[in-house]
Design a protein that fits this description.
The protein has about 130 residues and is mainly beta. It is built from one helix and eight strands, in the order H-E-E-E-E-E-E-E-E. The protein has one domain. The longest helix is centred in the N-terminal third of the chain and has 8 residues.
């Protein structure tokens, strides 16, 4: 299983990454994220806090991120309400807890999958 190397860590026990720490860790990288042992999505981190996200379906959404308190918030072109996460770093990579809520979604950085992020162009109609 691709994400079998993930191990659960308590976000509350670790210090959240600041915006500058998050930027230093992510900029120029393409990171795959897992949820409950399965690949969940992929995000490419660009200069000036720009990102491209995909649920691995070839449908990519451009966005930006910013720091709000101890959370890193993302706003995407198709969704203007911010999606905020508390990011911490473990020996295996990043851990993202949605809105810092221990009962909410928790994503883990996947190991290097040796795959590229695939983005298809806009839908072409007849």
């Amino acid at each position: 299983m691709i994400l079998a190397s993930f191990c659960a860590h308590s976000v509350a026990a670790q210090s959240p990454l600041s915006g500058s720490e998050f930027d230093k860790y992510t900029q120029g990288k393409t990171l795959f994220y897992g949820l409950e042992g399965q690949v969940y999505g992929v995000e490419r981190y660009l200069p000036n806090r720009r990102v491209i996200w995909s649920f691995l379906d070839g449908n990519c959404k451009e966005g930006i991120w910013y720091q709000r308190d101890d959370q890193i918030c993302f706003v995407y072109e198709d969704r203007l309400d911010p999606q905020c996460w508390v990011f911490t770093q473990s020996g295996g990579g990043l851990i993202a807890q949605f809105e810092g809520n221990s009962q909410a979604t928790e994503l883990y950085e996947a190991e290097d999958l040796g795959e590229d992020m695939v983005c298809y162009g806009p839908d072409v109609g007849v």
